[in-house]
Please model this.
Amino acid sequence: MRPVISFMHLSLDGFVAGPNGEMDWICVDEEIFEHVGRRIQEGDTALYGRKTFEMMEAYWPTAGDQPNATHHDRSHSAWYQKIQKVVLSTTLDEKNYRNTRVTGSNPVEKIQSIRQQTGPEILLFGSPAATHFLIQQDLIDGYWLFVNPVILGSGIPLFAGIQNKINLKLVSTRQFSCGVTELNYRVRR
Model:
């Protein structure tokens, strides 16, 4: 079965965004971009909540074509255009988007079906509401977390609505020069 891995930046106190959705505290630099860029090349499916997908769709399809596009913009834009995208939504029409499937009214069934297909891990990007839903449905198999050196005090927590304890196994860690620490966990089943 293909694992679903949640990719998320978070504060030291466990928030993925500020109280009003602010993400200006997230530290990203070329070192992180290159590391993430190499890792996501191994995958063929990205999973998004509707809000995050709409943000990504508004930027990435043409980001690499802009005259001032960075190497990261060109590389990530090319990856985004070829990757199969799955969106947790009952309102989007997948016909309007390239390489995109929408889960519709049966998201658990749709994700389980995708997990049964042959292929590498499925990366869930950002999407706090989608992450909360998938945690509650026991559909997340790992957490690829980038802990930023900041304490927000309040905001949108990564782990909300947890009904049962989730045991994790630390797979790897990495420290980046900007102070971010990557923690890669797998769920123990």
In short: The radius of gyration is 16 Å.
